[in-house]
């Protein structure tokens, strides 16, 4: 088992006490396994994943245990956590604009991250690694992209760069929080296929947050559904999607299906 989360609760600290955002969450993850997380907006999916990555700051109180290969991340020092992130655990976040420093070129930032975590100081080898990962993410003209600053690239490009960096780092765990929202449909397929390939080749464990039922059913083996900070249903991904048992899951899935139907209707009207 790579990740074992036990009784994880997260509170937002406030003057009037703690406000619960995530309540008594438990799950585990093995190598080469993908856990999908489904839940309405604000149900606690991102906060859960950030807590697992040890990314929540002093504005939050985190309780419980998050074991990574038997060591509790919540008890690690800031330095230990930062060494773990990048080399062992990578997170692809929803808003790629906030993942990059606007003051430095893409090349500068990727080289720094890779040299820190891979302990390789030879920039030529690192650049070759980056360009190879860029190609996999359909980022052609990689050398020109490397010279750019974040504001000169679209959200979709930055998202694919973030995923390419994650692939180059080859961590044991990838946490992907709505990784395809900023990307057009054609590139979404590429990104999902590439993440699937990474998993097959390197047995990477994955946690995948998405509102997209088709993506979740394609990529995840098991799934958990979150509602108001708690897990309300868990099981085999396809089974939950096609045969939800709990009321919040039924509601979520039927709303999604209605949206898809409405979208199909609009497209047909436009075509006719
Ligand atoms: N920095 C913060 N301070 C206080 N509360 C926060 C903070 N970030 C998120 N929250 C609250 O925590 C709860 C869970 O948020 P979270 O971002 O985990 O939801 P989510 O399920 O990932 O939603 P979405 O699908 O919209 O990303 C929400 O009520 C949100 O308002």
Structural class: alpha/beta
Unreliable runs, pLDDT <50, ≥5 residues?
none
Q: What percentage of residues falls in helices of 4 or more residues?
A: 40-55%
Provide mean pLDDT, rounded.
89
- CATH class value: Alpha Beta
CATH architecture: 3-Layer(aba) Sandwich
**CATH level-four homologous superfamily name:** P-loop containing nucleotide triphosphate hydrolases
What's the number of helices? 10
The biggest sheet amounts to:
6 strands, mixed
Helix-strand topology string = EEEHEEHEHHHHEHEHEEHH
Q: At the third CATH level, what is the topology name?
A: Rossmann fold
Bound molecules: adenosine-5'-triphosphate
Strand order of the largest sheet: 6-7-8-3-9-10
Output the radius of gyration: 19 Å
| Domain tally | 1
Q: What is the number of strand segments?
A: 10
Question: What kind of oligomer do you see?
Answer: single chain
Strand content: 25-35%
- Gross morphology is globular
Span of the ends, CA to CA: 53 Å
List keywords for this structure.
10 strands, 272 residues, globular, Rossmann fold, 10 helices, binds adenosine-5'-triphosphate, single chain, alpha/beta
């Amino acid at each position: 088992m790579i990740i074992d989360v036990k009784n994880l609760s997260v509170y937002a600290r406030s003057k009037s006490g703690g406000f619960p955002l995530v309540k008594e969450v438990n799950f585990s993850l093995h190598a080469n396994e993908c856990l999908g997380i489904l839940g309405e907006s604000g149900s606690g999916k991102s906060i859960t994943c950030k807590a697992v990555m040890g990314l929540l700051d002093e504005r939050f109180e985190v309780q419980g245990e998050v074991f990574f290969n038997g060591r509790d991340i919540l008890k690690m020092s800031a330095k230990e956590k930062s060494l773990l992130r990048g080399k062992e655990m990578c997170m692809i976040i929803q808003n790629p604009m906030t993942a990059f420093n606007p003051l430095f070129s893409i090349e500068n930032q990727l080289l720094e991250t890779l040299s820190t975590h891979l302990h390789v100081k030879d920039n030529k080898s690192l650049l070759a690694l980056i360009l190879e990962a860029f190609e996999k993410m359909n980022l052609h003209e990689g050398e020109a992209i490397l010279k750019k600053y974040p504001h000169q690239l679209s959200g979709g490009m930055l998202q694919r760069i973030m995923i390419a960096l994650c692939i180059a780092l080859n961590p044991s765990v990838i946490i992907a929080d709505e990784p395809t929202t900023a990307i057009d449909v054609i590139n979404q397929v590429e990104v999902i296929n590439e993440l699937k390939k990474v998993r097959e080749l390197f047995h990477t464990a994955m946690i995948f947050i998405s509102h997209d039922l088709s993506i979740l059913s394609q990529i995840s083996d098991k799934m958990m559904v979150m509602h108001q900070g708690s897990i309300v249903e868990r099981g085999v991904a396809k089974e939950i999607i096609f045969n939800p048992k709990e009321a919040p899951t039924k509601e979520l899935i039927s709303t999604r299906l209605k949206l898809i139907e409405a979208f199909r209707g609009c497209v047909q009207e436009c075509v006719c």
